[in-house]
Amino acid sequence: MYETGNIELVNIRGCPFRAVPKGEITLKQRKQAPNSSDLPVYLFKQGNNQEAYRYFGAHLEVQDGVPGAVFRVWAPHAKAVAVVGDFNSWVPGEHTMHKVTDGIWELFIPGIKEYDIYKYCITTASDELIYKSDPYAFHTETRPSNGSKVYDIEGYAWGDDHWTKESAKRDVINSPMSIYEMQAGSWKMKDAENGTPYNYAELADELIPYIKDMGYTHVELLPITEYPFDGSWGYQVTGYFAPTSRYGTPKDFMTFVDKLHQAGIGVILDWVPAHFPKDGYGLYMFDGAPCYEDPNPRRGEHKEWGTMVFNYGMKEVESFLISSAMFWVDKYHVDGLRVDAVASMLYLDYNRKDGEWEQNCKGGKENLEAIAFLQKLNTAILGKYPHKMMIAEESTAWPLVTKPAADGGLGFNFKWNMGWMNDMLSYMKTDPLFRAGNHGKVTFSFFYAFSENFVLPISHDEVVHGKCSLINKMPGDYEQKFANLRTFYGYMAAHPGKKLLFMGQEFGQFIEWDEKKPLDWMLLSYDKHRQLQDYVKDLNHLYRDTPALWQVDYSWEGFQWIVPDDSKQSVIAFLRRDAAGKMLLVVCNFNPVLRQGYQMGVPNPGSYKEILNSDDKKYGGSGVTNGTVKAEKGEMHGFEQHISLTLPPLSTVYFQVPAARKPRAKKAAEEADAAAKPVKKTAAKAKKAAPAAETAATASKRRGRPAKAKTPV
Predict the structure, then answer these.
(1) Among 293, 316, 393, 506, which one carries the catalytic annotation?
(2) Which of 148, 194, 564, 621 could be stapled to 134 by a disulfide with Cβ–Cβ 3.0 to 4.6 Å?
(3) Rounded Cα–Cα distance for residues 54 and 59 (Å)
(4) Which of 639, 634, 644 is closest to 603 using CA atoms?
(5) Which positions ≥6 away from 475 have C-beta within 8 Å?
(6) How far apart are CA 239 and CA 146, in angstroms?
């Protein structure tokens, strides 16, 4: 309780504070359940309770000196609700809940302990008894069992203060981001023969040295919100507030995030507000009628997926979903959420045939309630945590996805670039003999590259269901497959946008990903796989250490074409530029042909030093390199000088661009100004005059300093 003047702020059993006149609430009332006029219930029904998990669910507490737990659940169509569990032999009549207000039920049960298993037994309008897990449970049984567990979410001693403080200062838009997407149970296994995974804490210990060595900035986990079916990979969620118990307890998962943060690694979670499964114990027909799902059969189901669509126009569902998102950021310190299947939320006709959907109130196909929900969600999360990431997996050309809701956007701060991914994988799968006719797939992304804040995703979806692993998509023989992949990775690292790569693709896993098995780490005993991994590692570290590759990712000021149109030879060349004007030259040869004497214009005179070459022998290439190349006078591609390169077959090469020299006229004027300044005739300064004169005389022979601001060329 906090007091100020004649007003006190009271907090009843973890509910948000509210202001009341002093003395209005007695000690006994503070211990009692809130009624329908209390703020958490009011906010919940308005769709504005962003911390509904503090009120609903099971919470250990002491009432009148008696320890136990209070249970609260939203079941608006129920005739009656009871709490059942091992503590009452699962008999429905033992602990009947009472209605706090319309649709909200509550009961305090003495003697309840942490880890006690429970469900809600709901009497439907047709007098049927159905048993449901708690939608707000913090912990659950491990599949195939599906009961909820009482769990105290408080009390973990976090050690990531430094990470938290530093990340709050970070400009996520203009920072490096190289994401390692992974599935917690199949990256490595504790006992592969028996399919035993590491728990969350153990996984962190295994993962951290690898991620740091490989140079990734973030780990993105496929959904760990509780789910029943392993084959769904977590995308059919039944527990929106519970990390799956497959890998341990909630505090084990806190330990996972904490350890990664202390090691300087960010954590992003895949989060699924687009749909939920029909499992009988879950959200589906929760109280015997549509509750969480849209009741309209033309809006409420994805038949192709066998899942239900949330009712985004229901205020209580809004509170539920926004609270879930806020929960993972608040309680687990995660750095961002990748929001799954956004396109399926935005369009009423998504995966539906004519006659299976109906227009909105304005006669369009847009889901207006879902749009409003996403805007509200992103405003809530990024309003409180502007340094966090809300990443949309949105596969269409929907406009303004990463623009603020106040400006008519959806309010995300990043979007997966699915168009780039589809075009580039199609191009790389093409036999090099026919790439000339598909050159536009390499360059088309630049028509829209700066319209959104993009992440370039090579995700799990691209290496499953018969699509082949990334290495197996590549054409050619064994050597050429690796050369193609190295070329692609080099191009991807230099293309504007943040980066994401699914586990196993960094060392060239040949088979598709299988969630039942660990990755084929034994492949690293083969040279080509180990060399590919070394290349990705060096590429990641170079990316992080080179601001030109990430500092101006979302503007033409950070990118400039040199050779966009050499389709005949399948060659492209471009510049990346950082905020200070420092540049990197990138040249890609997508054909297995050695090109000697390949000329292109360059922005500055001087020497161009090769700093990375995908064809280097240490990466498994043929060893064709350039070393340092000096620019020659002669106009080309709009520049006053050019260079002549040897382009290795199937390669990406990076060159350090020399700093711009000051024009001679400007130098002469500066020297004249310096000479005109009066010199004090002190003995000490007179002695310094001779070397100063020498410096001025020879200054014109030396290179100028790097530009301190963007210098258009």
Answers:
(1) 393
(2) 148
(3) 8
(4) 639
(5) 429, 430, 431, 432, 481, 484
(6) 10
Which residues in the chain are classed under CATH 2.60.40.10?
Answer: 33-149
> 452, 465, 574, 473: which is closest to 514 by C-alpha?
465
What is the CA 226 to chain-centroid distance, rounded? 19
Q: Judge: domain 177-283+312-549, CATH 3.40.50.1000.
A: no
Residue 637 makes CB contacts below 8 A (sequence gap 6+) with 562, 563, 600, 601
- Taking the chain (713 residues) in runs of 10, the rounded mean pLDDT of each run is 40 43 45 58 96 97 96 97 96 94 95 98 97 98 95 97 96 96 97 93 98 98 95 94 97 98 98 96 97 94 93 97 98 98 96 91 95 98 97 96 96 97 97 96 96 97 92 97 98 98 97 95 98 98 98 97 97 97 98 97 98 98 97 96 98 96 64 59 41 38 34 38
In 3D, which of 363, 211, 342 has the Cα closest to residue 270? 342
Tokens 């990340």 — which residue? 167
DSSP codes of every residue in 213-250: HHT-SEEEESP-EE-S-GGGTT-S-SEEEEE-GGG--H
Assigned CATH for 33-149: 2.60.40.10
Q: In the chain, count of helices (H) and strands (E)?
A: 15, 36
Three-state DSSP at 410 gives coil
Give the whole-angstrom CA distance, residue 47 versus residue 319: 5
Task: Check if 330 is active-site.
Answer: no
CA pair distance 457, 421, nearest whole angstrom: 6
Structure tokens, 126: 């047709």
Tokens 């507030």 sit on residue = 241
State the pTM of this model.
0.88
What b/e readout covers 170-185, taking b as 16+ CB neighbours within 10 angstroms? eebbbbbbbbbbbbbb
- What's the Rg (C-alpha) of the chain? 30
Rounded-to-integer distance, Cα 412 and Cα 621, Å = 40
Residues 473/505, Cβ–Cβ less than 8 Å: no
Catalytic residue among 340, 462, 506, 615: 340
Give 310's strand partners: 293
Distance, in Å, from the CA atom of 598 to the CA atom of 368, rounded to the nearest integer, reads: 54
Residues of the chain with CATH 3.20.20.80: 177-283+312-549
Q: List, as one string, the DSSP characters of 496-537.
A: SSEEEEETTTTTT--SPP-TTS---GGGGGSHHHHHHHHHHH
Torsion angles phi and psi, residue 309, rounded to 5: -100, 135
The full length of the chain comes to: 713
Q: Please, what's the b/e burial string for 542-558 (b: 16 or more CB within 10 A of its CB; e: otherwise)? A: bbbebbbbbbbbbeeeb
